[in-house]
Amino acid sequence: MSKKNKGITRIEYEGVATRGWMVRITRAGERKQQFFNDKTHGGKAKALVAAKACYSDWAASAEPIRTSRNLKTARNSSGVVGVHMVRNVDSRWENAESFGYCASWVTQDGFRQKLSFAWKRYGKKAAWGLACIARKEESTDREQVVALYEKQSGKKVKKSS
User: Fold this and answer.
1) What is the Cα–Cα distance from 117 to 134, expressed in whole angstroms?
2) Is 133 exposed, middle or buried (0-12, 13-18, 19+ CB in 10 A)?
3) Which residues, in sequence order, are CB contacts of 1 under 8 Å at separation 6+?
4) What is the tens place of the pLDDT at every residue in 48-87?
5) Phi–psi pair at 94, nearest 5 degrees
6) Distance of CA 34 to CAs 7, 40, 113, 148, Å?
């Protein structure tokens, strides 16, 4: 289906005389739908015109589409959307685990991006601040994120190796 017919579906069942266009729209949990029969509206093309007009009216008067982007859910335990604690374990060594904070997001193109900051390298507090800035700016450029953190906090980031 093309984008010009968003919210409109063609209904044709074999063996059944009912043919037409179904218009549906859902906003804020409320769903509206209406069927436009070809025979009632004088043909397939005229029924489609009526269906498009109905969808346009409904879309104009409906609430804007809400997405879950940047909404904190019950699954969020860090308090900042897109920032979480990570625990890395290297199975080759005993007690070889490290911790950090990871910022993650999805780009406009639908690709997942992330940037992590280790506690051992930056310190726990600085790693948190860096991850929050990376998430807010949606930046994978570590140097830019560090520069923004230093500017905002007025502190130089210590990098331990």
Assistant:
1) 10
2) buried
3) 8, 9
4) 999 999 999 998 988 887 766 666 666 677 788 889 999 9
5) -75, 140
6) 11, 13, 41, 52
CB 23 within 8 A of CB 58: yes
Q: Looking at residue 50, what is its pLDDT?
A: 96
Which residue in 131, 161, 159, 140 sits closest to 149, CA to CA? 131
Residues 6 or more apart whose CB falls under 8 angstroms from that of 3 comprise none
Q: Whole-structure pTM over 0.90, yes or no?
A: no
Q: Are 122 and 159 in contact (CB under 8 A)?
A: yes
Percent of the chain with pLDDT over 70: 91
- Cβ neighbours of 126 (radius 10 Å): 22
Q: How far apart are CA 7 and CA 32, in angstroms?
A: 11
What is the rounded CA–CA span in Å between residue 57 and residue 92? Answer: 63
Alpha-carbon torsion angle 63, 68, 141, 128, nearest 10: 130
